[in-house]
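haha ok so turns out i had the wrong file open the whole time. this is the CORRECT one, sorry everyone. sequence first:
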Amino acid sequence: MNARALWAIARRDLTGVRRSRAIMTPLLVIPLGFLVLLPGLVALLPAFGGDDPQAARAFGQLMTALPAEARAALASGFADGGASYEQKWLLLVHTQLFPPLFLLVPFMVANVIAADSFAGERERATLEALLYTPPSDAELFVGKVLAAAVPALSVSLLGFLLYYAVVSGVGEAAYGWHPPFSAASLVLAAWVGPAFAAFGLAAMVAVSLRVQRTQDAVQVGGLFILPLIGLVVSAVKGAVVLRAGTLGVIGAVALGAALLLLRAGVRSFRRARLVSRL
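then structure:
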């Protein structure tokens, strides 16, 4: 494949994304809401309650409800075991509640752009001109996938840095303590999240080829996010303890599935079929 052709297609799509308010709005709102505002507010919940003993009691009940493995993982974050419930809450937020969002957010960002890849071209009546450009069928398909992958990867890494800065800043300001750096969170943000996003966007580009409107692609693509939501819920409830080694394997499986899906999409994509449907 011609790298210059791939980047030309991706750059064309990224320029269109930057100029589209309908696409840029969710691309900004989703990461800021899920990785900055929500973690900051949730981390501050104990501070809102002050020294209320009921708040400490409620947290104790929450900890008791967690599975034994999740409680042990949280306890290991404090060498002397004498942490306040505010500090334990912050560690719970940092290790169990919000790291799964590093899977969800890049997946959602990738899907917003991938859904627009071909269906959006149809709606804007620009698909025919695109299909008569020089790049090969494979370059055209991969270029569309690349256009969605760049923002998803950027959001994954930048969102992790913003999230950690917010949680650390809130911890220091409100409790005089911030949670230690989590290797599992880094693996989620830098490896597993992009792998799941790659799988989702390869599937969404294929869906976008077969529907007439971007909205239709988004509705169908909603099915792909259901397994991720199940994993997020399991992690929040403590049923799944996030460990770097296990997450590394999950990321490898997701990336392998994404590559297989991308290969199948490249093999099946024929612009002649799209021209005949115009």
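Residues 3-277 form one domain.
again sry for the mixup
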